[in-house]
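[job 4471] stage=fold_predict status=RUNNING
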Amino acid sequence: MPSAQQGRWRRPLMAMLLAAICGWVAPLAADQPSDSRAARAELEKAQADIERLKVMLQGLRQEVSGMEAELKESETDIGRLQRERRELEQQIRDGESRLIDLREQTRTLQASLKAQQQQIARQVRAAYMAGQQSYLKLLLNQDDPGRMARMLRYYDYVGQARVGEITRFNDTIAELQQASAQIVTQQTSLQQQREGLAERTAALETQQRKRSQLLASLQGQQRSQAEQLRAREAERAELTRLIKRLEEAVVSIPVPAGNLPFAQARGKMPLPVRGQVAARFGSQRGADSRLKWDGLVINAPSGTPVNAIHGGRVVFADWLRGSGLLLILDHGGGYLTLYGHNQTLLKEVGAWVQPGEPIATVGSSGGLSEPSLYFAIRHRGQALDPLGWCMLSG
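[job 4471] inference complete, writing structure tokens
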């Protein structure tokens, strides 16, 4: 208990401390609204830029034939169904792992319950053997008060132990019932997920058959070399127009601090996917020598993850004639990277991605017969050789 004198000198000290704390907090409180408003304004501006970009992309009408429009719809549906199937497969794997854990928990609880039953049975037998009069006999037959007090405490401890064992036994039963109920719930959820997976798989197979028919019809329409050249030139013009529109759109998403500028990462970045380089920058594209590749074509198994080679923001994630399901990243400084012919797109416009983060999966969209990735780098509209920027291996 503090004395009155101590109380008298403590009160002024507390007042001084409160005054000092108020002196520190006041400037912070005065600055906070200003900083908060600035951060909020920056966030709202970035969001407005993203919305403006989305509106621009919605207004970008692709001039495609009726059959190409059907191919776009079919390949977009395939990408969506593949993504949904992958998500369901992951949910099923997680659910099965959870079910294993629950079953292991149930086995542990059952073993604990059995041990507790045996312990309670031993205590009941011991109490029965001692007889119901033992406690009363103890009180009547003890001449030594100290010894009697010790024996009373002993009986009290024994009684408390019995109550504790029974309480733990009841708690274990409740946990076991809860775990059993969770197993039933998990099994029901897994069954529903498996049914959903079967539905997605059936729908996917239907769309893949439809795509094959559309692709055969399109290839039949472009049998001559002149027709193929016109188709490739139209595809190139479509991509050039898209990139020009993207460069005109001002998007000021804040770049995370400490991120290495794209130009400084030259020669240090990995390719977006491991596989065989089937076509290099500047090599002939198809049978016509007038057509050249402005990027790389990398063959890889369907469904292989496609990774961002550098941090950036998604400025396009949609189907484009000739490129199929295409994703474009803006890395700042006028640098764009393009990832085409994907099976699925894992990111949406406006998303910020880190180096090495999966952004898509390898596919054959855009009219390909075999899965591969089209990968290109652009700087202010000019095509750059990706092998001058990325490591061929490692």
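[job 4471] summary: Helices lie at 4-58, 66-130, 134-141, 145-221, 225-248.
[job 4471] exit 0
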